[in-house]
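Technical annex, item 7. During the second reporting period the consortium partners agreed on a shared format for inverse folding records so that results from different sites could be compared directly. Each record opens with the tokenized structure and is followed by the designed sequence. A conforming record, contributed by the partner at site C, is shown below for reference.
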């Protein structure tokens, strides 16, 4: 595996970029759309996590020629028939996670089954085309926010085997077990085998 490999992650979300950089470590230089001054909106109109991850990764690679990683992640809630799912980031308002959480908690009022999982699908796109890697973390939803770390739905999600939300964990602890970590581990294994 090449060291200092540059990787363009199809996001403007600095939290996501930092999280991926922390997980991948020093062998990679993780860049975001902002770093490349790409500001036009990438329309995620796919009907699955895989389709949206591909749209993002392919767009970035075609625009820059840099190996690109599209990440589509979301919260899948059993009692809500899989919602918010692919609409997680804009469930109640575009990337307004306070409103998104409020909407999920509202819809889950008085619901006993609070099982949910976070999923990340990564699409790696380079001159050889697309490869997919995914990870899942199962857990339960609380009835109120707890913790201030992390981002997205982290304050209401308690992973299986833990008694605290992702938002209460230190980033290095979350990054050891997260859905994104699982997907990135598979991606790293793929790069090692390929080289």
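Designed sequence (site C submission):
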């Amino acid at each position: 595996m090449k060291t200092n490999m540059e990787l363009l992650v199809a996001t403007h979300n600095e939290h996501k970029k930092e999280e991926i950089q922390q997980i991948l470590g020093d062998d990679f230089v993780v860049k975001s759309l902002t770093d490349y001054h790409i500001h036009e909106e990438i329309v995620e109109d796919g009907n699955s996590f895989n389709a949206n991850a591909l749209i993002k990764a392919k767009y970035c690679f075609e625009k820059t020629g840099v190996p690109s990683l599209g990440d589509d992640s979301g919260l899948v809630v059993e009692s809500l028939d899989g919602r918010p799912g692919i609409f997680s980031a804009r469930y109640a308002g575009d990337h307004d996670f306070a409103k998104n959480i409020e909407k999920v908690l509202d819809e889950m009022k008085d619901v006993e089954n609070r099982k949910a999982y976070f999923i990340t699908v990564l699409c790696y796109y380079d001159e050889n085309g697309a490869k997919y890697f995914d990870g899942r973390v199962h857990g339960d939803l609380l009835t109120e926010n707890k913790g201030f770390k992390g981002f997205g739905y982290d304050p209401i999600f308690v992973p299986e085997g833990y008694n605290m939300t992702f938002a209460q964990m230190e980033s290095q602890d979350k990054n050891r077990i997260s859905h994104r970590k699982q997907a990135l581990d598979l991606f790293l294994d793929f790069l090692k085998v390929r080289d």
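The chain has one domain: 5-194. The radius of gyration is 16 Å. All partners now use this format for quarterly exchanges.
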